[in-house]
Write a structure and sequence with these properties.
Shape: elongated
CATH architecture: Beta Barrel
Helix content: under 10%
Order of helices and strands: HEHEEEEEEEEE
CATH class: Mainly Beta
Radius of gyration: 19 Å
Number of helices: 2
Number of strands: 10
Number of domains: 1
Strand order of the largest sheet: 1-3-4-5-6-8-9-10
Oligomer: single chain
Length: 206
């Protein structure tokens, strides 16, 4: 797993530092939307418990380098909200874990070269840096000594979308965390959980 983390980090760093070829068509823009986040692995921990996804916001900036008619390499810097809602088997306790991240994906997009609306698919690695976290039980914040989640995360993104003319784009994606993110076993929570997030966003090219 350490070698996978190293490969992802090197790939992202190379993509950020490598200058684009002179023939690349460069686009800069902003994007915003919503996401539905969850933690994978809780059902194996307690099959009788209920785990609900947590809705949130995602948004930020992107830099797209278009190579010819088919390929785009896109770097993004996104604020994204993650977490999950846990309900005990007897419904007496509801715990909400909220975590905000700065996420940095590096995506390769394959475009269909149509005139106005261009479908595309994409995939690539992503790294995340935790900005803050909060744990609530039945609506009240729980003071926690130390951190529940690790400060960094990494994973893979897969998705599809549409270029709507030259200035707008829409995409749907799934981000699967590849790192176990729990740093401290709060309330008996095991350390095997990983982040998973569905997102939808609209982008505008400057």
């Amino acid at each position: 797993m350490k070698s996978l983390r190293t490969i992802l980090a090197i790939g992202l760093l190379a993509g950020l530092l490598a200058p684009p070829p002179a023939r690349a068509d460069i686009q800069i823009g902003v994007k915003a939307g919503g996401n539905v986040a969850h933690l994978t692995g809780i059902q194996a921990w307690d099959p009788s418990a209920s785990l609900k996804s947590k809705s949130g916001f995602t948004g930020g900036f992107f830099l797209a380098m278009n190579y010819g008619r088919y390929v785009t390499v896109q770097w993004e810097a996104l604020y994204t909200m993650k977490g999950a809602v846990y309900t005990s088997p007897d419904d007496s306790v509801t715990e909400t874990l909220t975590a905000d991240y700065l996420e940095v994906p590096l995506l390769v997009k394959l475009r269909a070269p149509l005139a106005v609306i261009q479908p595309f698919v994409f995939a690539g690695p992503t790294v995340g840096f935790k900005l803050q976290e909060k744990l609530e039980s039945n609506g009240e914040e729980i003071p926690v000594s130390g951190s529940i989640l690790k400060n960094n995360d990494y994973g893979a993104i897969f998705g599809a979308g549409l270029n709507l003319g030259p200035n707008f784009m829409f995409d749907v994606r799934y981000s699967q965390g590849l790192q176990k993110v729990v740093a401290a076993a709060e309330g008996g929570m095991p350390a095997g959980f990983k982040n998973g997030v569905w997102s939808m966003s609209l982008g505008i090219v400057f």
